[in-house]
Design a protein that fits this description.
alpha+beta, 9% strand, tRNA-specific adenosine deaminase activity, A to I editase domain-containing protein, double-stranded RNA binding
Length: 151
C-alpha cells in the first residue's frame, strides 16, 4: 500500500496495531507526520540500554554496515522491531505470571491468530476497509502470508 493509505489507516485505527490494542487502554495516534524519506532504512533507539539500531526496512534485518553503537552484528540478525521479536515480547507480557488483566495467549499460537483475537480492533479495521470499498477507493491489499509464523 502507499504511505498515504497507511497513514489513513493509522489515523482511524491508531499506530499500535492489533496485538498492542489488546494491552493498551486507548489507541495511539499521530500528532504530526514527515513524509519523503525514500531509503528503506530506519533507525531506532532503545532508552533502556542506550543502543541504536539501523534496520533495512525491506528485510527487517539489522544493517551491519550502518550499526551505530556496537560492533557490526551478523547480517542475519533480525531487528528488535521485526514482527517476530515484537511478538515474542507481546507473548511475554501477556502471560498470567505477570498478574496482568490481559487475555492469556496459548504459547503455541501463531502471530496471525493472535492478531485476529483482538476483536474490537478487527471490527474497526473491517469497518474501515468496507468504507474504502463503499466509497470506491478499492480494496486494501492484504499480506496475511507474512503473518503465518510462531515465535
Amino acid at each position: 500500500m502507499s504511505c498515504s493509505d497507511k497513514i489513513c489507516k493509522w489515523n482511524v485505527l491508531g499506530l499500535q496495531g492489533a496485538l498492542l490494542s489488546s494491552v493498551m487502554d486507548s489507541p495511539l495516534f499521530l500528532s504530526s507526520v514527515v513524509v519523503g524519506k525514500s531509503k528503506p532504512v530506519s533507525v531506532n533507539w532503545n532508552i533502556i540500554d542506550d543502543t541504536t539500531e539501523v534496520t533495512n526496512g525491506r528485510t527487517g534485518k539489522v544493517s551491519p554496515d550502518l550499526y551505530l553503537t556496537s560492533p557490526s552484528p551478523d547480517s542475519c540478525i533480525y531487528s528488535r522491531l521485526c514482527k517476530k521479536e515484537l511478538f515474542c515480547l507481546y507473548k511475554t507480557i501477556t502471560q498470567p505470571h505477570n498478574g496482568l488483566r490481559y487475555q492469556r495467549l496459548d504459547r503455541h499460537i501463531d502471530y496471525h491468530t493472535a492478531k485476529l483475537s483482538a476483536k474490537q480492533y478487527q471490527r474497526r479495521k473491517t469497518d474501515l476497509y468496507s468504507t474504502f470499498r463503499e466509497k470506491g477507493y478499492g480494496m486494501w491489499a492484504g499480506r496475511e502470508d507474512v503473518d503465518q509464523f510462531r515465535a
